[in-house]
Amino acid sequence: MKLLALTLAAAAxxxxxxxxxxxxxxxxxxxxxxxxxxxxxxxxxxxxxREMELPPPGAPGMPKRSGDQSNISGTSQPSDATAEGAESVxxxxxxxxxxxxxxxxxxxxxxxxxxxxxxxxxxxxPAGVRIDPVDVNGFMTYGTxxxxxxxxxxxxxxxxxxxxxxxxxxxxxxxxxxVLLAPGIxxxxxxxxxxxxxxxxxxxxxxxxxATAYINGVQxxxxxxxxxxxxxxxxxxxxxxIDARVTDRALREIYLRGFEKAVKQAHPWTIMTSYNKIxxxxxxxxxxxxxxxxxxxxxxxxxxxTDWWAEENGARQMLAGNDLIEPGTQRQFDEVLNAVKSGFLxxxxxxxxxxxxxxxxxxxxxxxxxxxxxxxxxxxxxQLLRESAPEGMVLLENRExxxxxxxxxxxxxxxxxxxxVYVGGSGSGNVNRAYKISPDQGLTEAGYKLDKDLNKVYSxxxxxxxxxxxxxxxxxxxxxxELAIDDAAIEKAAKNCDVAVLTIGRMAGEGGDRTLEKGxxxxxxxxxxxxxxxxxxxxxxxxxxxxxxxMGGVIDMADWKDTPDAILHAWLPxxxxxxxxxxxxxxxxxxxxxxxxTFAKRYEDYGSAPYFxxxxxxxxxxxxxxxIFVGYRHFDRAGIEPLYPFGYGKSYTTFKYSDxxxxxxxxGYSVAVKVTNTGxxxxxxxxxxxxxxxxxxxxxxxxxxxxxxxTQLLKPGESQTLVMNVPASDLASWxxxxxxxxxxxxxxxxxxxxxxxxxxxxxxxxxxx
Length: 769
Ligand code: BGC
Known about the structure:
The chain is of the alpha/beta class. It contains 21 helices and 27 strands. The site of beta-D-glucopyranose has 9 residues, from loops.
């Protein structure tokens, strides 16, 4: 069904289809490349989406645009609407490609009809397929907004992630998308990174495992992924130029580790390099990274693309092994062509890069002529995500078994997000979904009665405020100021209702980092007042307050976490948010999520805090002096007690661990542990395996996550033995002296624990000789 594109660039010089020309899919790729003209080659390594709308100038954290892009249309009109450069060969080609595009897809690879090369489509993103909704025979091509990255990671459930991403891949496949620009797996070095919601965790092992499951799910549809952003892209502040200054060891053990695992275990079809520099070199121009580590050491065999408009020098990107430049500009075309003509860029390098791209194109559904339907089963996917999102929700507090709520309770529902929930973040991780369900609707459907007065005032306020604003878009998800509820109304609700639920929401996303201001990192005075007042009023009546956190990451909560009776972290859980939240509050689902990052008592407690480029004058440098001590590794070393440790999460039931057994295997260790449900409700438990190395020859973290496993739903009294495999190579550290992985000999302590606060876990010592 996908149209083959016409290269007008080629058509100007060469007959449309010449007899005897090699044909893609039939003849060897080398012969196809040989038959390409130099202009075709240069066109090919530059994305074919050159008329794409540029981000608005001055969008936070965006690259400074060079004036020489003026021949790129500033709107999504076809490029022939642009006066300057309209006659250029490349622009003419682009005009032709617009016909075969999936509307709203971020990028394409070029089709060349005379050689039988199909266009392939690249579309975001991590939480679902981001394309424009268009009417195809009465069916609107919405993407399902799936749970965001932190929600997936918080499930600690490889099978679940694979199931969800199989559905994302199915949507991509049925909408004619060949490569999904996901997953994003940069390390949560700081809680302030604006894109943390898309990413997974502060721990590279968890990142690598969730990414592996994600990639396996998507690629099971014969849709490729683009694992991003490679690498060390841990802030949005000045993201296009910032230089991440990182040690070799931290690079290997923390920032590249998740990528390494995912590449070796799941074989992503493509990789996206990041905007930033690493130790002075633009990531997309870092040959040591792309050719050296990614391909030669890890054996990556797909193609590498830039992030969008990540431009320094196209020729240097080609030399570094960054095969494809996205979405492509006229300037880059000229630059690469001139570099070949001047001899700076050998044509063989272009050939090599094109062969790699074509190698992946050959695998795509486009190349195989898959007849996509434009009609995926959105209903089934919505049901799947409703059932799945609760698996990642984290019960932070639950005093006196406040939760689950009994049936038929009357709820006083407070907070804007209770009526207008955030289901995802902003930027390319956003999804053009058909609808979203907020907690008011979810709780009503679950049989709860909502306080009518509150319902009315919030619903009216949100509706009016929304009407005043433009619709949400790529860069902006509207944040409506919190509605002030007066004390009398709170008192009244406390008398009339059985329980209060207050949702606290935060929005963040691409192009900017979060701030330490009230309203972002901490509560506003109004939020604080509501929290205290609602708690007082309800407690006075012997009733409880439940707080729901609706955000992609961490918030400052040390001095209020004991005010409510229960706290549920619901993250940005996708378009069925309200139903998923209601399922947890009602007890239909027992929450089994655990934190994929540390919650600190104070922002200053994070290892990155003194170095994060936030609010620094000289923000061109991101100083990674915290080295390998990211997240819990830092809290352990500094002896700082976190508010909630990495890996923490409660359940409506309790579990006991026993019978820990570590058995050497051919290539490492097999660790078995028995988990028994000792409580009164069915539930699932994630066991985490931490390993403490001898640490005599090299400073080592106090402990590191080396395995995890989740039980099935265990009935009260029921047990399951979980098995975790630790490859011996996972015990090694990167030695900067020898530039290799070294495993220290001695006694290693293996601890199976409920969280990184391993004190209550069970341990066994293992001698490594
Ligand atoms: C983002 C990428 C995304 C690309 C295409 C960039 O701004 O950093 O993550 O895939 O745009 O939309």
